[in-house]
Each structure stands twice: as C-alpha cells, then as structure tokens.
Design brief:
Oligomer: single chain
Strand order of the largest sheet: 3-2-4-5-7-6
Strand content: 15-25%
Structural class: alpha/beta
Number of helices: 23
Largest sheet: 6 strands, parallel
Distance between the termini: 117 Å
Number of strands: 19
Length: 590
C-alpha cells in the first residue's frame, strides 16, 4: 500500500472515530446554574421540593452556597436583604404554587423597598395550566407575579435560559432596584442540548446599573434653594445607604454644615453621635425646617407624606429631592428642586457645585437644633439606666445600646411594634448598612430571614432584636441558624402578648384574649432543642452580659428577655393608623 493510501485509510479511521464519539450535552438544570455563576451569584436561598430539588443539589456540587430554609417567605426575605447589602440581586428558589405564593410576599416587599431580588420558581406544565386541566400545583404564576414586581419572565426552552437570567439581573438592579420573577416550568430542567451551544447561549451582563447623571441645571437650582435656606435639613433614606456612596454623602453633609436626619435603615451613614445629627431632635427639625434635601428618601407614610402637623405650617417647606425615578417627584407635595439621577452621581455633582465660599447654615438654627438634641438625650438617659426586673423596654434597650456601641461592626436586625419603635431611637448606629429592619411596608416576619442573610453575606456577627409577636412569624428558622452554625444572637422581648400581655377575654370565657400569648413562655428552650445556646434573663445587667457573651462566641444563641407584660403601647408609635371603635356593644350580662 502506498504511503498516500495508508494516510487516507488512517484519516478515514479518525473521521469514523470522531463520528462515533458521544456528543457532549448539557441540560436546563446545568444551564441555570452556569448562568447564575457566570454573573457572580454566589448564594442561593431556597426551600427544596418538586421540581427544584436536583437543581439545588447540583448547585451545591458546583460550588454555590445553598441556604435551605423552613419557609419560602423567610428564604425570600433573606434574598431581598442580600440584594440590599451587596447591590447584586439576591436569589430565592421555591417550588410551585403554594411555595411560589409564600415567596411572592417577600418579592413584593423587596420591590416596595427597592431591594434587588430574583424569585425563581418551578411551575406546572403550560399546556395543562392554560387549559385548566388540574396539574400538580397548577397555577398561572407568571400572571400572579407581574403586578408585584418590576418584571416577570417565563422560560420555555433551554437555549433561552441564559438570556432570561441576564434580563432578570438587569431588571433587578437597573434604575430603581426591585424584585423580578423568573418562571421555570418543570419540563425545562430536563431539556437537553449541545454543551457548546449551551455555553454560547449564556450571557454575562455588562454594566447592569449604569450611572444616570443629573441635569446640571437641576444641580444649580437645588444648590440655589439650599444656599438661601434659613433652617435647612438633610434627610437621608435607605436608598442613600444602598448606593454605597458613603464618603460622598458624608462629605456633602459635613461641607454643608447642615443638620441631618437618618431614616432607620440609613442610620450609620454618619454616626448617630455626629455633632450635626438631629436624630434626637426629630420632631423639632421636621416641623421647623424651611428647606429639606431628601437623599434616597421618599415622602411616604413614614414621613407623613410631607404634610400635616409633623411638618408645621402648610406651605412652610421647600423640598429638594434626589431620586433615580422621575415619577417619584411631586408624589405628595411639590418638589421645588427635583434632581433625577443615581444618588452617587447627584451627590458628587452637588459637592462639585459647592464653591469654597459655601455659607454655613445660620448659627441660630444649628444652635437651636443642638440644644434640643442635648436636652432630649439628657431626658432619656435615666430611663436607659434602669435595672428594674421585670424589665421595661427602655431598660432592656439601654443594655443593648451598650452592646452595639462596643461592637459597631455587628449587624443589627430589628422588628416588632414597641421593640422596633423604641430601638430605632435608642440604639445609636456608627457604620452604614448595619441596621436592617421592616422598611417601607412596616411588615412583621423579616427577622430571621434578614439575620441569616446578613450573617451569610457579610460574615459579621448579627444581633436580632425581636418582639415576641414578630418573632413568631419566622421563629422556626432558628433551626436554620443552628444548622448552618451562623453567628446570630436573637433577643426576644417577651412581654407575653401583642403590644402588651395584659389583655383579657371580655366575656370571661375560657379562651384567652386574641392579643396575648402563653404567659412565661421560654423561647430559649426552643433554641436549645436545635443545639443552640438558650439563655433566660430578667434584668438589664443580665441581658447585657448574656448578649455580650453570645456576640463574642459567635454561637447561635437565643435570649429570652422577660419584659413587664404591662409595658408597651397599643400599635407602638403608629397607633394613629389603628382604627378604634367608639361605639362598642355592651358585654352580655354575667
């Protein structure tokens, strides 16, 4: 045989061998994981079940950290606050129908609070759902999700997974951040395609949240209004904390010399102990200020919509507002100087426009604010030193105030009624994004989800201060905290009821009042059942020592802090929102 013929036979054999080689394949499971990893997603918050169990197993095998919860709402809350802390969308995975609905509450809350989050839910088969033929957990999830989030997408073909994940990420973080829903029918996961083609179908999102620069004319207008103010105030909202333009915001406040207020999740952008802080003179500055610069804050119910007695005489205020969403302007009152753009760019532009001769605010104003602040701090001090047993809210929070001051880098999670309202004013914060609470909706149930994600995303110790009612919404997640050995210390303010533990059944019947819980409950025993540390305390000094030890140890800990059942007020600081009957039916004769 000639050498040419031999070469031809050899080549023919090689071609045949290549033809017989198995084709490398991928599937929907792998493509979802690859798309998330390509875009820097590191953590998944989930509740396993049909049809996502294998997806979670495979994700863990591929190096993603999967945190498995006991309830989808808590997993969703964890994903939402992860988005706030990292500026990347937190990802929650749920099963279909009821699991999806549980996660939807968290998705809607994330959208309301402007937290970037993606809810990924398995779903039933389209051809059965559309004909309403009764599939397993049948529900048109896409239609239900759409009104409650920024965007909602369904993926029917494996080759579209990459582009769908990319669109979800971009929608979640661009402009005003929020929640996005991604619907993945069960059949999608097992769809198979060529591995090389699958790899090419993936999309890495480029510049998903580009800067949106403000109009120079808007900056000039805002500075003119601010410069001419007699009693100016800067009000920082959680949007200012989210953007992580901490140095620029601090520079703006300090260069202007203007007193500032921080909404609860903005606390720590500047320390609450800063000399320009007006936190302890809140009522005064809101009522008396003549110009208010809003930075990442909205004039919603938390700020009395910018009007009413909170804000003094009608028409006495001029508002300057920085927001990335143009429709936010004039939402409740006139904004005389709207500044539309991302907060970081807008604050930098304001700083650049302040010349070296920027006038300090009138001394009469800053002195009046400082005097009111110091007077209110002095008035509060004795209450915080109380060591009464059983504890009242002030004594207990005074002890926790010391803990936080000694550990400014720790994350504080806070929810409840009185527990939230009083802690917000009593506990000083020193660093940004260290206080996480109920946010815009004022909802209960965020506590354990936020605590888990805060520990996972930051690696910092977490102190969760919970009202006993609020803790009940997510308390089972203490097992999750123990399972993952997270450095979370939970303090349950236990006054045996909702607002108070003293209500009685007006009929004299055997059923308790709907406002009370089992008296003398031992939430600490619940923690011990899962291998965590449980502590029972009745006095502020005991509380301080127990929390300090827990924060230093990093061990999952729950402290049952006994509060006087008579302590607390109806609905906390928002009692005006709780309708009360003025015409009550007389109780039946005994």
């Amino acid at each position: 045989m000639s050498s040419a013929a031999a070469t031809a036979v050899k080549n023919q054999g090689a071609d045949a061998s290549q033809f017989d080689a198995p084709q490398a394949l991928t599937d929907g499971f792998q493509l979802v994981i690859d798309a998330l990893k390509l875009n820097g997603i590191e953590h998944l918050y989930a509740v396993p079940g049909i049809p996502i169990s294998d997806l979670l197993r495979m994700a863990q095998a591929e190096g993603l950290r999967v945190i498995s919860f006991r309830h989808e709402q808590n997993a969703g809350n964890a994903a939402a606050i992860a988005g706030f802390l990292t500026k990347k969308p937190g990802v929650c995975l749920t099963v279909s129908a009821p699991g999806f609905l549980n996660g939807l509450t968290a998705l809607a809350n994330a959208t309301t609070n402007c937290f970037p989050m993606i809810l990924i839910s398995g779903s039933s088969e389209r051809e059965i759902v559309d004909l309403q033929q009764g599939d397993y957990e049948e529900m048109d999830q896409l239609a239900i999700a759409r009104p409650h989030c920024k965007a909602a997408f369904r993926v029917l073909h494996a080759q579209d997974i990459g582009i769908a994940v990319a669109r979800a990420i971009r929608a979640a973080v661009s402009g005003r951040p929020g929640g996005v829903y991604l619907d993945l029918p069960a059949k999608l996961f097992s769809q198979v395609m060529d591995e090389a083609a699958g790899r090419k179908s993936l999309v890495k999102v480029i510049d998903p949240a580009p800067a949106q620069l403000p109009d120079p004319n808007a900056i000039k207008r805002a500075l003119d209004v601010l410069k001419n103010a007699k009693r100016p105030l800067i009000l920082l909202g959680k949007g200012a904390a989210y953007v992580q333009a901490d140095q620029e915001i601090r520079a703006l406040v300090e260069k202007s010399g203007i007193p500032f207020l921080q909404m609860s999740m903005a606390k720590g952008l500047l320390p609450d102990t800063h000399p320009q802080s007006a936190g302890a003179a809140r009522s005064m500055v809101l009522k008396d200020a003549d110009v208010v610069l809003l930075v990442g804050a909205r004039l919603n119910w938390l700020l009395s919509h910018g009007k009413g007695k909170t804000w003094g005489e009608p028409g006495s205020k001029k508002f300057i507002q920085i927001d990335i969403e143009p429709k936010e302007m004039d939402s409740n009152v006139e904004i005389v100087a709207p500044v539309v753009g991302d907060i970081g760019s807008c604050v930098s532009a304001l700083l650049a426009g302040m010349d070296g001769q920027w006038p300090a605010p009138p001394a009469e104003w800053t002195k009046a604010v400082a005097e009111r602040r110091e007077a209110n701090i002095a008035k509060m001090a004795p209450k915080l030193m109380s060591n009464a047993s059983p504890m009242n809210f002030h004594g207990a929070l005074g002890a926790l105030r010391r803990v936080v001051k000694e550990r400014p880098d720790a994350i504080l999670v806070n929810e409840g009624a009185n527990t939230l309202d009083l802690a917000r004013g009593i506990i000083d914060m020193y660093e940004p994004r260290k206080r996480l609470d109920v946010g815009t909706w004022g909802v209960m149930g965020i506590g354990m989800g936020y605590a888990v994600a805060a520990a996972v995303e930051t690696g910092k110790p977490v102190l969760a201060i919970e009202g006993d009612s609020a803790f009940g919404f997510s308390g089972m997640e203490v097992e999750t905290i123990c399972r993952y050995k997270l450095p979370v210390c939970i303090v349950v303010f236990n006054n045996s009821g909702i607002y108070r533990g003293t209500d009685v059944n007006p009929t004299g019947g055997n059923d308790p009042s709907p406002m009370v819980f089992v008296p003398d409950s031992r939430y600490d025993k619940m923690m011990e059942a899962f291998g965590g540390v449980g502590v029972h305390v009745t006095a502020p000094d005991e509380l301080y020592r127990a929390v300090s030890e827990a924060m230093d140890s990093g061990k999952p800990t729950l402290i049952n802090a006994v509060i006087d059942p008579a302590a607390g007020t109806e609905s906390g600081n928002i009692g005006s929102l709780n309708p009360q009957s003025t015409v009550r039916k007389a109780p039946p004769p005994q």
